[in-house]
């Protein structure tokens, strides 16, 4: 059992990192565990902290509130050094144990399967492996890649296209259910980030963040389920209206009521932009496509389809400058014609980015085959990578569909393949042991030929 301070923190994106950094400076006393969900202006702000899903009214002065929270967090952290403030069972959030070394030999644990990532792919893999009694270990990360444990769904409001939830479900809530099911079946979940792996030989070696200079832990197999994050433009007003009119997934969010029969905007000029714009014509009154250049990068057939669609207008040589709204929802987009220099406000109740995603593959870059966009390449129809024993699941290897349900499916595939590999290797070892007992001369090269 690990005792630690558990706080629900409501603050701005800027302040939360100050709070975390302050706590990490005294992490020998307490290891803070944070999850962060974007503030949603159209509803009471959401503070998502592991086993809690509580609604709060945001303070008026966010900067002052952030400073106050940072001070309070430090005070509670110091108190936690001498008093038990809050404790949870070992099946809840826990830190990976730090083992000592004796006689120069590592006493770090060796795991059969380590899962890196905590989205639908990672937790689905964990559920299957735990039920197979392989005792999987899942590292969900502490704001790894700037995203809370649970992945991109923690920044999504309503999820309406995941089977089993006819009335829809909030993103953080469904990830809480994923996590609870993983824990129920015996998955060990560590709220820490894996910062380094060595895939040069098996068992693989890996290190936790802030422990890179210590002895590595070992894993017979690793499942990479670190996901990918959408590229954002960081426009003025973007943070305020993210998930309140601005999205990076038309398929995920296009059907929600705030976009129906309203003017919508897609930014991008490739196939993804063409596909998303065409998809949005089912719901919006009209769809504008902003293209920085004077031509589309999309394939000829996709470009032709877009150009001929009666509900689509392509604004070539245009860029977005600012997202505007009423404080609750997006209402307009400030745009600029880069040739004439003219600026104007375009009515838009929805803004969809289709400018690509960034896969979280820095951890294994240079050690496993990736495509030109940085996604881990897998053998078609499998989760197998170019490194035996390393499997990839979810958006880290899928740049086409990027859906929660497809990620979950690939997590299942990765788990089954890891289980099969381990079973085959165990059987091979057993055969070798039996052969050595039956024919001892074969096991000792010095006696060969006698």
UniProtKB/TrEMBL annotation:
Cofactor: binding comment: Binds 1 FAD per subunit.
Chaperone keyword on record: no
Catalyses which reaction(s): [thioredoxin]-dithiol + NADP(+) = [thioredoxin]-disulfide + NADPH + H(+)
GO MF entries: thioredoxin-disulfide reductase (NADPH) activity
Residue ranges of the region described as Disordered: 428-450
Cofactor(s) demanded: FAD
This protein's UniProt keywords: Disulfide bond, FAD, Flavoprotein, NADP, Oxidoreductase, Redox-active center
Cellular component, GO, one term: cytoplasm
Pfam families xrefs: Pyr_redox_2
Binding partners and assembly: Homodimer.
Family statement drawn from the similarity comment of this UniProt entry: Belongs to the class-II pyridine nucleotide-disulfide oxidoreductase family.
NCBIfam families, A to Z: TRX_reduct
Name of the molecule in the record: Thioredoxin reductase
